[in-house]
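Memo to structure team: turn this sequence into C-alpha coordinates by end of day. - J.P.
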Amino acid sequence: MLEDISCPLCRSTNGHTITTSKPACSYFDCLDCRLISMHKKSHLSHDQELARYLLHQNDVLDLRYQNFVKDVTGFVQNHIKLPATGLDFGSGPGPVVTQILRTQGYTMYCYDPYFANQPALLSFQYDFIVSCEVVEHFYYPAEEFSKLKRCLGINSPLIIKTLLFEDDIDFVNWYYGKDPTHVCFYRLHTFEWIAKKYQFTLETSGNRLIVLWNNRKVIFFP
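Reply from structure team:
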Protein backbone atom coordinates (compact mmCIF):
# COMPACT_ATOMS: atom_id res chain seq x y z
CA MET A 1 0.00 0.00 0.00
CA LEU A 2 1.29 3.48 -0.88
CA GLU A 3 2.16 5.47 2.21
CA ASP A 4 0.90 9.01 2.64
CA ILE A 5 4.10 10.65 1.37
CA SER A 6 5.18 12.69 -1.62
CA CYS A 7 8.28 13.15 -3.71
CA PRO A 8 10.51 15.98 -2.41
CA LEU A 9 11.37 16.97 -5.98
CA CYS A 10 8.11 16.97 -7.95
CA ARG A 11 5.63 16.66 -5.02
CA SER A 12 3.90 13.68 -6.66
CA THR A 13 2.34 10.94 -4.55
CA ASN A 14 2.46 8.54 -7.50
CA GLY A 15 5.01 5.95 -6.47
CA HIS A 16 5.83 3.06 -4.21
CA THR A 17 7.93 2.29 -1.14
CA ILE A 18 11.24 0.44 -1.13
CA THR A 19 12.57 -0.93 2.15
CA THR A 20 16.11 -2.01 2.99
CA SER A 21 17.44 -3.82 6.04
CA LYS A 22 21.15 -2.85 6.03
CA PRO A 23 20.79 -0.03 6.77
CA ALA A 24 17.16 -0.20 7.86
CA CYS A 25 15.55 2.51 5.74
CA SER A 26 12.51 3.14 3.59
CA TYR A 27 12.42 5.08 0.33
CA PHE A 28 9.84 6.56 -2.03
CA ASP A 29 10.31 5.61 -5.68
CA CYS A 30 8.51 8.35 -7.62
CA LEU A 31 6.87 7.21 -10.85
CA ASP A 32 6.67 10.76 -12.24
CA CYS A 33 10.12 12.37 -11.96
CA ARG A 34 11.69 8.95 -11.11
CA LEU A 35 13.62 10.20 -8.08
CA ILE A 36 14.20 7.70 -5.27
CA SER A 37 14.15 9.54 -1.95
CA MET A 38 14.63 8.38 1.61
CA HIS A 39 11.60 8.79 3.86
CA LYS A 40 12.03 11.51 6.46
CA LYS A 41 11.64 8.98 9.29
CA SER A 42 14.90 7.37 8.11
CA HIS A 43 16.96 10.58 8.03
CA LEU A 44 19.93 10.96 10.34
CA SER A 45 19.95 13.69 12.95
CA HIS A 46 22.12 16.77 12.38
CA ASP A 47 24.83 15.45 14.73
CA GLN A 48 24.76 11.95 13.22
CA GLU A 49 25.11 13.37 9.73
CA LEU A 50 27.99 15.65 10.71
CA ALA A 51 29.78 12.73 12.38
CA ARG A 52 29.55 10.75 9.14
CA TYR A 53 30.92 13.64 7.09
CA LEU A 54 33.87 14.02 9.46
CA LEU A 55 34.87 10.45 8.62
CA HIS A 56 35.45 11.42 4.97
CA GLN A 57 39.09 11.63 4.00
CA ASN A 58 38.90 14.25 1.24
CA ASP A 59 42.42 15.63 1.57
CA VAL A 60 43.06 18.29 -1.07
CA LEU A 61 46.54 16.78 -1.59
CA ASP A 62 45.23 13.23 -2.09
CA LEU A 63 46.09 12.30 -5.69
CA ARG A 64 43.41 9.60 -5.76
CA TYR A 65 40.71 12.12 -4.90
CA GLN A 66 42.13 14.62 -7.36
CA ASN A 67 41.81 11.94 -10.04
CA PHE A 68 38.27 11.15 -8.89
CA VAL A 69 37.15 14.75 -9.53
CA LYS A 70 39.13 15.14 -12.76
CA ASP A 71 35.99 14.88 -14.91
CA VAL A 72 34.54 17.87 -13.03
CA THR A 73 37.66 20.02 -13.07
CA GLY A 74 38.41 18.99 -16.65
CA PHE A 75 34.97 20.08 -17.80
CA VAL A 76 35.51 23.52 -16.28
CA GLN A 77 38.94 23.88 -17.84
CA ASN A 78 37.65 22.80 -21.26
CA HIS A 79 34.45 24.88 -21.32
CA ILE A 80 34.89 27.94 -19.09
CA LYS A 81 37.28 30.61 -20.27
CA LEU A 82 39.30 32.68 -17.82
CA PRO A 83 38.70 34.95 -16.04
CA ALA A 84 35.72 33.25 -14.42
CA THR A 85 34.21 32.89 -10.97
CA GLY A 86 32.77 29.64 -9.68
CA LEU A 87 30.96 28.32 -6.65
CA ASP A 88 31.83 24.95 -5.09
CA PHE A 89 28.39 24.06 -3.71
CA GLY A 90 28.67 21.45 -0.97
CA SER A 91 32.45 21.77 -0.84
CA GLY A 92 32.84 19.60 2.27
CA PRO A 93 35.76 19.55 4.70
CA GLY A 94 38.37 19.14 1.93
CA PRO A 95 37.44 21.29 -1.09
CA VAL A 96 39.72 19.60 -3.60
CA VAL A 97 37.77 20.86 -6.64
CA THR A 98 38.20 24.43 -5.44
CA GLN A 99 41.91 23.90 -4.77
CA ILE A 100 42.55 22.48 -8.25
CA LEU A 101 40.60 25.19 -10.07
CA ARG A 102 42.26 27.97 -8.08
CA THR A 103 45.65 26.70 -9.24
CA GLN A 104 44.29 26.99 -12.81
CA GLY A 105 43.43 30.66 -12.29
CA TYR A 106 39.71 30.46 -11.50
CA THR A 107 38.21 32.51 -8.69
CA MET A 108 36.43 30.03 -6.45
CA TYR A 109 34.11 30.34 -3.45
CA CYS A 110 33.00 27.51 -1.19
CA TYR A 111 29.57 26.97 0.28
CA ASP A 112 28.70 24.07 2.56
CA PRO A 113 26.02 24.01 5.29
CA TYR A 114 28.42 22.24 7.66
CA PHE A 115 31.94 23.33 6.70
CA ALA A 116 31.60 26.68 4.89
CA ASN A 117 28.23 28.00 5.94
CA GLN A 118 28.24 31.40 4.25
CA PRO A 119 24.67 31.91 2.99
CA ALA A 120 25.57 35.38 1.68
CA LEU A 121 27.41 33.61 -1.16
CA LEU A 122 24.05 32.38 -2.42
CA SER A 123 22.98 35.95 -3.17
CA PHE A 124 25.35 36.20 -6.15
CA GLN A 125 25.47 34.72 -9.64
CA TYR A 126 28.43 32.72 -10.90
CA ASP A 127 29.97 31.78 -14.23
CA PHE A 128 29.70 28.14 -13.18
CA ILE A 129 28.78 26.01 -10.18
CA VAL A 130 30.31 22.65 -9.31
CA SER A 131 28.53 20.20 -7.02
CA CYS A 132 30.59 17.05 -6.67
CA GLU A 133 28.98 14.10 -4.84
CA VAL A 134 26.46 16.47 -3.25
CA VAL A 135 23.00 16.20 -4.81
CA GLU A 136 22.47 12.75 -3.32
CA HIS A 137 22.53 14.48 0.09
CA PHE A 138 19.67 16.90 -0.70
CA TYR A 139 16.79 16.58 1.78
CA TYR A 140 14.81 19.15 -0.20
CA PRO A 141 15.92 18.87 -3.84
CA ALA A 142 13.20 21.16 -5.22
CA GLU A 143 14.42 24.01 -3.03
CA GLU A 144 18.07 23.26 -3.71
CA PHE A 145 17.72 23.25 -7.51
CA SER A 146 15.73 26.49 -7.35
CA LYS A 147 18.53 27.99 -5.28
CA LEU A 148 21.19 26.81 -7.72
CA LYS A 149 19.23 28.17 -10.68
CA ARG A 150 19.18 31.63 -9.11
CA CYS A 151 22.95 31.49 -8.54
CA LEU A 152 23.82 30.88 -12.20
CA GLY A 153 24.46 33.50 -14.82
CA ILE A 154 23.08 33.14 -18.34
CA ASN A 155 24.78 30.40 -20.40
CA SER A 156 26.50 29.14 -17.25
CA PRO A 157 26.69 25.45 -16.27
CA LEU A 158 25.78 23.60 -13.12
CA ILE A 159 28.27 20.71 -13.13
CA ILE A 160 27.09 17.77 -11.03
CA LYS A 161 28.82 14.55 -10.14
CA THR A 162 26.64 11.78 -8.73
CA LEU A 163 26.09 8.13 -9.56
CA LEU A 164 22.94 7.61 -11.62
CA PHE A 165 20.56 4.80 -10.75
CA GLU A 166 19.55 2.44 -13.53
CA ASP A 167 16.58 0.11 -13.35
CA ASP A 168 18.64 -3.04 -13.79
CA ILE A 169 20.40 -2.29 -10.47
CA ASP A 170 19.22 -4.09 -7.34
CA PHE A 171 18.56 -1.01 -5.23
CA VAL A 172 18.32 -2.94 -1.95
CA ASN A 173 21.92 -4.17 -2.35
CA TRP A 174 23.34 -1.17 -4.25
CA TYR A 175 26.51 0.08 -2.57
CA TYR A 176 25.69 3.74 -3.26
CA GLY A 177 22.59 3.43 -1.11
CA LYS A 178 24.49 2.00 1.84
CA ASP A 179 25.72 5.44 2.91
CA PRO A 180 23.01 6.72 5.29
CA THR A 181 23.73 10.34 4.28
CA HIS A 182 22.68 9.52 0.70
CA VAL A 183 18.99 10.40 0.68
CA CYS A 184 18.21 11.06 -3.01
CA PHE A 185 19.02 8.91 -6.02
CA TYR A 186 18.58 10.14 -9.57
CA ARG A 187 17.86 8.37 -12.81
CA LEU A 188 18.72 9.98 -16.14
CA HIS A 189 14.99 10.60 -16.49
CA THR A 190 15.10 12.58 -13.23
CA PHE A 191 17.63 15.00 -14.66
CA GLU A 192 15.60 15.27 -17.84
CA TRP A 193 12.65 16.26 -15.62
CA ILE A 194 14.82 18.77 -13.72
CA ALA A 195 16.08 20.29 -16.98
CA LYS A 196 12.53 20.79 -18.23
CA LYS A 197 11.19 22.13 -14.93
CA TYR A 198 14.01 24.58 -14.26
CA GLN A 199 14.71 25.43 -17.90
CA PHE A 200 18.18 24.00 -18.27
CA THR A 201 19.82 22.29 -21.23
CA LEU A 202 21.03 18.85 -20.16
CA GLU A 203 24.40 17.37 -21.08
CA THR A 204 25.71 14.08 -19.67
CA SER A 205 28.94 12.10 -19.75
CA GLY A 206 28.83 8.50 -18.60
CA ASN A 207 26.73 7.69 -15.56
CA ARG A 208 28.32 10.20 -13.16
CA LEU A 209 28.77 13.60 -14.82
CA ILE A 210 25.66 15.70 -15.43
CA VAL A 211 25.79 19.27 -16.73
CA LEU A 212 22.78 21.60 -16.62
CA TRP A 213 23.33 24.70 -18.76
CA ASN A 214 21.39 27.75 -17.67
CA ASN A 215 20.44 29.24 -21.03
CA ARG A 216 17.32 31.00 -19.81
CA LYS A 217 16.90 33.98 -17.53
CA VAL A 218 16.27 33.29 -13.86
CA ILE A 219 12.75 32.18 -13.06
CA PHE A 220 11.63 31.80 -9.45
CA PHE A 221 9.89 28.58 -8.55
CA PRO A 222 7.64 27.72 -5.65
